Amino acid sequence: DAGVIQSPRHEVTEMGQEVTLRCKPISGHNSLFWYRQTMMRGLELLIYFNNNVPIDDSGMPEDRFSAKMPNASFSTLKIQPSEPRDSAVYFCASSLFSAGGTSSNSPLHFGNGTRLTVT
Amino acid sequence: DQQVKQNSPSLSVQEGRISILNCDYTNSMFDYFLWYKKYPAEGPTFLISISSIKDKNEDGRFTVFLNKSAKHLSLHIVPSQPGDSAVYFCAASVGYGNKLVFGAGTILRVKS
Fold first, then answer.
1. Phi/psi of residue B93, each to 5°?
2. Cβ(B52)–Cβ(B101) under 8 Å?
3. Is the pLDDT of residue B108 over 80?
4. Is pLDDT of B25 > 70?
5. Mean pLDDT of B39-66
6. Residue A102 and which of A48, B95, B99, B108 are 20 to 30 A apart at CA?
7. Best interface-test mutation with B: which of A4, A24, A43 has the largest number of B CBs within 10 A?
């Protein structure tokens, strides 16, 4: 089991540029989550998918953020245009059931994150 | 408005002693609570959980206590070990199948 794989690990970009973060969930998991971690707010849920369908995107901060899940093994989070306040660590997580980590039998499995710096 | 609050940004404990990490929540509808642990440069990993029908859940050195009337939960680690040094996140959800709301995390340092 390779775990949740995120790329890139680090991304440094200039304000106004487009940024695309990628995620490969654990095979067989049917729910996928994008979280953002900042010092002030901790881990914030941006959006989650169940069976490739977006279920709740209420955490997406602005229209500059968009996420897609074209198939069960791949998801992207795009920021266009990026701004310095978007600098954070972005985590992707997957789980076996739509509970999304609300059961000890189906906890969230997180990737190692992408550290985004927008200058 | 943060619904899950971890008011202590950091905690330092001597090896072998008890570590107590605290978490408060404001949403009385939360009925499932979890703790996640995170090492540097890694994603958080699930540690222990408790449902609102219980007030205590134990797993080895880790015990979570829930006080519903105070809207407060705590994680006890006994005895603490240097390998426990990490960031600990408290999380909560309303019902099974709903999204997790995380706190800001507490950095635990266990000194040997």
1. -145, 160
2. no
3. yes
4. yes
5. 95
6. B108
7. A43
Average the pLDDT over B57-84 and give the result: 97
Bond preceding residue A54 cis, omega within 30 of 0: no
Least Cα distance to B24 among B56, B60, B70 occurs for B70
d(C-alpha A40, C-alpha A43), whole Å: 9
pLDDT for the residue A41: 81
Average pLDDT over residues B28-32: 92
Q: Locate the chain B residue with the closest alpha carbon to A91.
A: B43
More confident residue, A106 or A52: A52
Which pLDDT value is given to residue A3? 93
Q: For residue A103, what is the DSSP state? A: S
DSSP character at residue A86: G
Q: For residues B16 and B68, give the distance between their C-alpha atoms in angstroms, rounded to a whole number.
A: 29
End-to-end CA distance of chain A: 36
pLDDT: is A103 or A77 the higher one?
A77
Which of B92, B78, B79 has its CA nearest to residue B29?
Answer: B92
Percent of chain A with pLDDT over 90: 72
The answer to whether the Cβ–Cβ distance between B105 and A101 falls below 8 Å is no
CB under 8 Å, gap of 24 or more: what pairs does A38-43 form? Answer: A38/A88, A39/B104, A40/B104, A41/B2, A41/B104, A42/B2, A42/B6, A42/B89, A42/B102, A42/B103, A42/B104, A42/B105, A43/A91, A43/B44, A43/B89, A43/B91, A43/B102, A43/B105
* A contacts of B93 (beta carbons < 8 Å): 100-102
